[in-house]
Amino acid sequence: MGLRGPKHKPKTDGSRLPSFSPLLSDEENVCLASLVADLNRTGFAEGCDLQAVLLAARRMARARQMEALVSQLEEPTIIGGNGQPALHPLLAERRSAERDLADSLRVLNLTPMSRKSIRVGVREVQPATDAVSAKTAKLLRLMP
Asked: How many domains is the chain partitioned into structurally?
């Protein structure tokens, strides 16, 4: 028979993620600061691995770089070796960078679906809420 009562929530030491790293470039540090702000806002920063956050910052900077390069293209196609038009290779690179970034965001619980799985799972993390009443706090916990 299963256990009853409130589910155990993991305990952390309460450490904070840095918003700057000397290992990253300037653009990657801008992305790192953005990710740390999002993680702090959602309340999942305490359960994050620093290396996963740094990787996500690198991937976000790469996705932004690919988006800037694609936006500078005059046409989305090129003429291939056989004379037929083909999609520009930068479009595939952008799609790959966006997919990698989405994977990193999912690992960091920064997508609605990943937050839902944590909220209803046994490893639920209590996000920080600024509620004025117990009813509002309960409602904010249920929101993705």
From this structure: 1
Render pLDDT for 100-122 as a digit per residue (tens, 0 to 9). Answer: 999 999 988 888 777 665 554 44
pTM of the model: 0.70
Measured on CA atoms in the order 74, 57, 105, 101, is the torsion positive or negative? positive
CA 107 → CA 4, 39, 52, 79, 135, distances in Å? 29, 12, 8, 39, 30
Q: Is residue 14 part of a domain?
A: no
CA distances from 12 to 57, 83, 126 (A): 23, 60, 12
Alpha helices per DSSP H over 7-133: 26-42, 50-71, 89-107, 112-120
Q: Any bridge partners for residue 87, and if so which?
A: 77
